[in-house]
Write a structure and sequence with these properties.
- The structure is a single chain.
- The protein has 131 residues and is an alpha+beta fold.
- It has a single domain, classed as Nonspecific Lipid-transfer Protein, Chain A (2-Layer Sandwich).
- It has four helices and four strands; from the N terminus they run H-H-E-E-E-H-H-E.
- A four-stranded mixed beta sheet has the order 2-1-3-4.
- A hairpin with a 3-residue loop joins strand 1 and strand 2.
- The longest helix is centred in the first third of the chain and has 18 residues.
- It is globular.
Length: 131
């Protein structure tokens, strides 16, 4: 299967803008599920397009899982390099409102494998969300 093309940057910015108030203030009303899903999927797919490869799998359940970063890839079973987090933490990382190390140290992000921290090099994907 051919790799997906990069999402339109304007769509990514619009999707992130739709959830920006909630990202900046966790007491703000939560976005609609469709808005949240769009922001998560588009930013994760942007990462996959920006850092193509299959050595690290980024999972943001229940919305998306993408493979990224050049290097050894896996073909069966659980990949050796996985980053998994919740949608809000992912969007905070993707917008630069939260650092990878801070998320990992707090337990908001689970990372396994020696290549998992490599995604930090590619973040943020969208400069901080504006409310």
């Amino acid at each position: 299967m051919p790799p997906r093309s990069a999402p339109d940057p304007a769509r990514v910015r619009a999707a992130v803008s739709a959830v920006a108030a909630w990202l900046r203030d966790d007491t703000a009303p939560a976005p609609e599920r469709a808005e949240l899903a769009a922001a998560v999927r588009l930013t994760a797919r942007s990462l996959a397009a920006t850092a193509p490869g299959a050595s690290v799998e980024v999972r943001v359940p229940p919305f998306v899982a993408v493979q990224c970063i050049e290097g050894p890839s896996h073909t069966r079973g659980t990949p050796p390099n996985v980053v998994e987090t919740d949608p809000r933490t992912w969007l905070l990382l993707a917008t630069g409102l939260l650092a990878y190390d801070t998320a990992a140290d707090s337990g908001a992000l689970a990372a396994s494998g020696s290549r998992a921290p490599d995604i930090a090099h590619w973040l943020p994907l969208v400069r901080s969300a504006q409310p």
